[in-house]
Amino acid sequence: MANKYKLLLKMQLYGLFGINRLLHSHDKKEKNRTLIIGIAGLTIIGFLVYLSGYICSVFANAGLVQAVPTLIIVIYSLIVLLLTFLKSSGALVGLKDYDMVMSLPVSNISVILSRLTMLYIMNFIIGMIAMIPAIVVYGTNTSVSISDFFVLVITLLLTPVIPMLTALTIGIIIVAVSSKSKHNNILVLLFSTIGILLLVYVSSKLQTMDTAQIADISTMLINRFNQFYPPASFVSKALLYSDWISFAIFILSSFIALLAFAAIVSYFYKQLNTRAFSHHVGKDFHLGDLSVSSPLIALYKKESARFFSCTIYALNSCIVIILLFAVSIMSVFYLPGMITQQLEALGVMSVLETMIPLVVSALVCICCTTSASLSLEGKSRWIMCSVPVKTITVFNSKILVNLTVILPILWVSLILLRIAFSLTVIQTIFLFITPTIYALFISVVGMLLNAKYPRYDWTSEYYAVKGGAVSVLATVGVGLVLSAVPVYLCISFRDYAQLIVIAVTIFIAAVTFMAYRFLTKIRLYI
Amino acid sequence: MNKIILEIKHYSKIYSDNKKAVEDLNITVKSGEIHAFIGHNGAGKTTTIRAAVGVMDFDQGTILIDGHSVKKEAVLCKSLTAYIPDNPDLYEYITGIQYLNYICDMFSVPKNERTSRIRKYAELFKIADSLGDLISSYSHGMKQKLALIGAFIHNPKLFVFDEPFVGLDPEASFNLKGIMKEACQNGSAIFFSTHVLEVAEKLCDTVSIINSGKLIASGTMEEVRGQHSLEDVFMEVVENGKQI
Question: What is the per-residue DSSP string for B66-106?
Fold first, then answer.
């Protein structure tokens, strides 16, 4: 079994971060793409390293160095939980290569363990990079003995196990529950959205606890973390009080959870996959009158169906706009009067109100379906390329879908924000105009970048939407830079904040127009 | 004399690493003709087919469909053509009927003709009951049948198929041959690649053989095969480099 497991894992590792493709590809575009992904990945890693180090040094400076181990475990676990949850659909159940793998003379447990190991390796690498600065902060602020070092190493190795299994279990339950329905992807999307909103809620609760008189609530904070996540408590006790029984419980619970999970999933593996691959089959289909649409509307309908068919695509594109909506509701009902009074007393309320359109625009720039929409055509792109319509019509349909996703929720959110804040007439006008222009801008730029850097050769939709999709990374980067720079300018030149917002809106509108003109000249080929 | 529907003149395709996939290819397919395009794997068949239907760019040569340039009047040429690739991956997230209606919208099939045309072909290929199901639930053969229905429902002047018989059951293969002949009788032309030489021999009026990107035989079936079988001729021209 061990040998087969190693062979299965080896095949998985060939696909890790596209390194094998880079080594064996003679395509320059492929190498450039990998380089861009590498740079983007390193930037994200740099950001994580900075964030992790910063958070832990804030705790250490506040005299709360004993809270750092708990913090390490909680942040590491949340990262693993979120990353695995986003990948859980198709990671273990409903594999694209299920038939091929299961037809090999291998046991279920070998297949499951090889997939788990692969997920573990990815989570471990990302988690380690993010957590090393925190460990350095902890090490430099305390005297680390050999036994402490041993505890830290084992902790880092085992921490991803429980959150990874938790996320996979949720993912499998979602697949099991929703596979009976014809509209299972919409259900998965709904469950996933609720799951992410819950995660964000928990994270924001934890952040609120941080800022509220941090020094006084240290004990409560640690207790909350430890109550919230017992494995963190076991590790803290081992590090702080050399409680080896707690540490043994942590190690044992990780291994038992892993073995129990592998055993249960391997026992039900075929049933689970049968459910995942089973489809709703209609009976006695009657062919009636068919609706007639223009090519643009037909493409738009098809594109909308695509949006709802792919959970990760829909989640990636609309979760931030849903969060904006949630924040807008909260700002109407729960905007603390004390905060607004303090901001007014400091004389920054006016500039903040002027900047709201830019802040909302920054969020709008993260919501972009177009940057992955062309890549998602994948192997079906022959249809798009062979239908008798101009390429710009295909692009227009994809841009329309993005605007359909963003604009209704955006405009409702803006109405709520207008109710929450007392804005002048000009501020109100640009509250609506600026984010709308940015929505158009990001839709067009996302389309342009995806047309320039399409990735059709994906084996899982995840890779077209998230994992190494140059167009997606570049679109978010361009959008964030072009919305963050004006915010910085407004803060630096407060007296001209309104003028800056107006100028930026006109500039973005002009860039959008030029990008669209460029888009009209592109032709699509296989 | 029948009108020329597909005309490939001096077509060459060179990839970025200077590898010539196809070199100076000349093929003509007339109205009412079924033309077989045969060759080894990697001979340049799919590259030629993709260029002919306007889904792949090319640098050298001219390709005309019903007298219109594929390069200059791409949309018009596509509206006259039905194309099915060798492995027709369809949109798995929509139902069979949604796919067919999408194709009808794209090719502006009149509303009053849609249902009857879809019914005719769906019943012929025995997938009428499954049209309400998601394409992801279809077998490989059913997807091939759906792609074929999508090709026939808009009555194009030119059909370009890459291995259309792969995955079809014997009855569907038989029916496909029948509707191919019917389409040609109505004035369309069919240009398709195949590895099944017996099918090409029985079904086609004209044939072209391509080897390593070069056309080595082209003409009517009788001209190309002479007194031999198409298989014998194919082996002869491909292995010995003999030109016909």
Answer: TTEETTTSHHHHHHTEEEE-SS----TTSBHHHHHHHHHHH
Give me the residue label for tokens 């993005």: A402
Chain B residue closest to A392 (CA)? B75
B144 inside 8 A of chain A by CB? no
Sign of the Cα torsion A179, A303, A290, B140 reads negative
* Segment B137-166 mean pLDDT: 95
> What mean pLDDT comes out for the span B83-97?
92
Helices A146-158 and A244-267, interaxial angle, to 10°? 20
In angstroms, rounded to a whole number, what is the distance separating the alpha carbons of residues A491 and A488? 5
List all residues of chain B from 59 to 88 with a beta carbon under 8 Å from chain A.
74-79, 81, 83, 85, 87-88
* A184 pLDDT higher than 70: no
- Nearest CB neighbour to A289, from listed B78, B92, B115: B115
What's the domain count of chain B? 1
- Residues 203-232, chain B: which have Cβ within 8 Å of A? none
* CB atoms closer than 10 angstroms to residue A493: 12
Q: How many CB atoms lie within 10 A of CB A352?
A: 18
Cβ of B83 within 8 Å of Cβ of A282? The answer is no
Is B115 in CB contact (< 8 Å) with chain A?
yes
For residue B179, being part of any structural domain is answered with no
Mean of pLDDT values over B199-218: 93
Boundaries of domain holding B39:
1-80+158-170+190-244
Structure tokens at A127: 């988690």
pLDDT at A209: 46
pLDDT in tens, A217-244: 455 656 666 666 777 777 777 777 778 8
Q: Residue A91 has which token pair?
A: 């990671």
3-state secondary structure of B64: strand
What are the tens digits of pLDDT across the range A53-78? 777 777 777 777 777 777 777 778 87
> Is A68 in contact with A60 (CB distance < 8 Å)?
yes
Q: Among B97, B78, B193, which Cα is nearest to B146's?
A: B97
The ipTM is 0.91
